[in-house]
Amino acid sequence: MNHHSAGFSYYAKATSLTPEYYQTLLDHYWRRSGTTLYRPDQLHACCVHYTLRLDSTQFKPTRDQRQTINRFNKFLTGEAYTKEAARLHPLTREQARKRDSEFDLIERVHEAEYDSLQMPPEPAHVFTVTLEHDDFTDEKYMVYENYQRVVHKEQPGEISRRGFQRFLCESPVERKTITTADGKEKRLGSFHQCYRLDGKLVAIGVLDLLPHCVSAVYFLYHESIHKYAPGKLGAIREIALAREGGYRYWYPGFYIHTCPKMRYKMDYTPQYILDPETLTWDLVDKRVTGLLDKKQYLSLSKEKLDSPKNDGFKETAERTTEGSELTGETPMNDSDDDDVDTFLFNTGMPGVMSLDEIRSFDQMDHLKLRIDGSGMLFETGDLVAWQRQDVGASGSLKAGIAELVAALGPALVNDLVVDFWNPRL
């Protein structure tokens, strides 16, 4: 990693992250944009970023979400297919009763895919969904260009192949396949979930598949399918992937309560919000949304401390320890914060180590460094200037590394390599 702080976010550049390491980063309030990692300062930012996650095993789609899936499936199969398939492949009475009374999420998201249909007859449209490597292709870029121009109203000069590649095709998260305890294969790393309609790529979900979550990086689609609510379809399918693939949680990306365009993330429940100070998860209920409406910055752990009888709070917090075994957004614009003291230890950023904690942290002299192309790793204590410098001296090498350690936290330091050599940084 390389690193720097700026305004209301702390940034780091990464060249290689294991899925397990990035899972822990997410649970410590980090996210990535391409190969750039960033951790917002919720206490001082004008637009406070919160980390959310949804438990896919508890997800129950709303009536509107169910109707969206059913409407799209009917479009894909067509009326002629539905009638003929009912004649050729009739449901039993029990199957019909179950379908009318229950909504099986996994079954419904797959039922109109071409490989899932009973044939004959042929459906009106051939629909496929594939999980592919996050490589750049012209086919993918054409969807991106259309989405940015039509949906986001960007000018042609603002859209480029290099921008698409840097933002959505370059990831430091390594890909691998593991075998779970029940013998199933589980893919980890960065992928593109590609939706094709009659052979044409019409939507892409950019995903990080991690040990305990499906993390949504970005979702984009071609204008031709806009009327079918592709964003909603994509979110539901990602939740289904979290359940079906054994990832359990769906992380929809940072949530800004004051941003109307992000309110849709709360339409999927049950959601949990990560406390910026204690890194514990709390269920988002009406009381929590009410507090978000009232407060510029919300730490539920502080709210509970300020309310001796918990004032109606449910004890729903859970520590994010699972990471230690171990639709998307870009970093905030800090251009207006030139006069802000950006030395991390002077900012009061919640959830990071204090200067006193850093001074007493016994690993500071043993952090791993890469300083040349030999492949050999050194320790911070090997540096000539290390013992002469103070972690509190802003601008010094030692203070810069101390900032990175403080922003990451003790759980992430053992596997950290600070890279001073890699030309890509």
UniProtKB/TrEMBL annotation:
PANTHER family: ARGININE-TRNA-PROTEIN TRANSFERASE 1, ARGINYL-TRNA--PROTEIN TRANSFERASE 1. Belongs to the R-transferase family. The keyword Transferase applies. Residues 11-67 form the N-end aminoacyl transferase N-terminal domain. This is arginyltransferase. Residues 139-275 form the N-end rule aminoacyl transferase C-terminal domain. It holds the Pfam family ATE_C. Keywords: Acyltransferase, Transferase. One of its GO terms (cellular component) is cytoplasm. One of its GO terms (molecular function) is arginyl-tRNA--protein transferase activity. It is an enzyme of class 2 (transferase). It comes from Colletotrichum tabaci. Residues 308-334 are annotated as: Disordered.
